[in-house]
Amino acid sequence: MKGKAIIAIAFIGIFLVGFYVSANYNTPPNNNEDTPKSFKKDEINTKEELNLGTFSVSMNVKDLATSIAFYEKLGFEQFGGGTEMNYVIMKNGTTLIGLFQGMFEGNILTFNPGWDENAQNLESFKDVREIQTILDSKDIETGDKIDPATSGPASLILTDPDGNTIFIDQHR
Q: Which pTM does this prediction carry?
């Protein structure tokens, strides 16, 4: 009986130590003055925020009408474009997909700086020229360069290590 009590106490002790460690070392810091300097949020998060804008997938489709019908069955509704233009933007909640027939090969990850998921202008956003500068500083090739002295609509195209195309397309 004494052996079982020791084992039970040992398990309770291990549980309490695990609980203490989890509660004190796996939670984000709260930046209180009594928090050690090495755990303060501004000290930990030294990466520059790089918001690329609203995300969508631009898909190359074989038959636009067939693809529209399929995605409508999944709850998507037409949001932009048109069949006469050979592309349709579809939306389900905040999820956006673009269906493009005969316009490009493969599928593309698309980001739109300056827009929300409803294609409404955002009050503030990171301009595509600033994104280009940041990507250049990280040795990420962005193809044709945008003149930093310009403003307004512009776009960047880059390729990830697996050959996926990423299109950063600013409309304003």
A: 0.68
